[in-house]
Every structure is written in C-alpha cells, then in structure tokens.
Write a structure and sequence with these properties.
It is a single chain. By secondary structure, the chain is mainly α. Helix content is about 35%, strand content about 5%. The protein contains 2 helices and 2 strands. The structure holds zinc ion. The site of zinc ion has 8 residues, from loops.
C-alpha cells in the first residue's frame, strides 16, 4: 500500500508530472547513487499512482475511462475490457 501524499494535483498536472518523472527516470540511471536515492524518495512522496487506464469509444472515438460501461460522450454501451496489469493491484469491479 502506497502512502498517499497530502498534495492534490489536477489530472492535467498529474499527467504532466508522470511525464516529467518518466523523462528523469530515463536520464537519472547514470547519476550518482545519492542523487538516484533522493529522486526515488521524491517520486515516492509525489505518490502519483498508476496512470488512469483509458479506452476509445468505438462509436464516437471519445477517450474515456477503461472501466466505464458506457461512453461519457455518446452514451454508447461499451463492452467490458480487462484492465491492463502494470503490477499495481486493481480495484474490484465498481
Ligand atoms: Zn462514444
């Protein structure tokens, strides 16, 4: 169980933060261990969590939550898709 930080970011900010974290992750592998450790701590404190899984509506191509049973745009019924596992425990069916 991750410790959630008290910080609240907008979805857009979280998406941007994830991209930044990803970029630095790529570059920091050559950095000294002390810097890598500090970075790992920072990422942990940010506690961004996994990216929300999305899907495209086959009818209108609106991108919505993967777990949704209806499109939020055109309200078409969507078939259930299995959530992609990224090693993070998936919440039970809502
Ligand atoms: Zn739709």
């Amino acid at each position: 169980m991750r410790i959630m930080s008290n910080a609240h970011y907008s979805d857009a900010a979280v998406t941007k933060l994830r991209a930044i974290v990803h970029t630095i992750d790529q570059e920091i592998s050559h950095a000294p261990p002390t810097l890598r450790a500090a970075w790992a701590e920072l990422v942990d404190v940010l506690a961004l969590g996994p990216a929300a899984q999305t899907r495209e509506c086959p009818a209108c191509h609106n991108v919505g939550m993967r777990a949704a049973s209806r499109c939020g745009h055109c309200w078409a019924a969507l078939e259930r898709l299995p959530l992609v596992s990224d090693g993070t425990p998936v919440q039970g069916d809502a």
